[in-house]
Amino acid sequence: MAQSEPNGLFAMVELNYQGVFNRNPFSYTGGVKTIFNDVDFSSMTYSEFVTFCERFMHEECKKFYYCEPDMSFMEGLNPISDDVEYSAFIFDAYGTDGVISVYVDHIGVGVDGWHDDEDNDDDEHESCIDGHQMILS
């Protein structure tokens, strides 16, 4: 596993996978975290990034998201679904002195727009990305 010490050459990317996006409260729970500080993500295209992540995780990914540095998870979560969005991720990743977090959606439902209607959700239920609901006690 990559060490979590910055080396000054590459952005530190925290890959969060095998977890679940929760709608209320908006979060990503469970799964595995791995920090890369020795991978040159800036030399990759979006397609190469997807291939790298899938080979590392040994599983297919439907969607990727990253959280902009210094923003809340709800407000800073952005999709990475093409070369343009990947370039924005790289710009943000290399513009921070810390770690930038990437989140994997293995199911493919997506969370785009979830934060827009978070206030309209029923507080008694927690929706997960797979469409199931958990009753909170």
UniProtKB/TrEMBL annotation:
Pfam family, one: PB1-like
Full protein name: PB1-like domain-containing protein
Every PB1-like domain range: 13-106
Domain of life: Eukaryota
Lineage: Eukaryota, Viridiplantae, Streptophyta, Embryophyta, Tracheophyta
InterPro entries attached to this UniProt entry: PB1-like_dom_pln
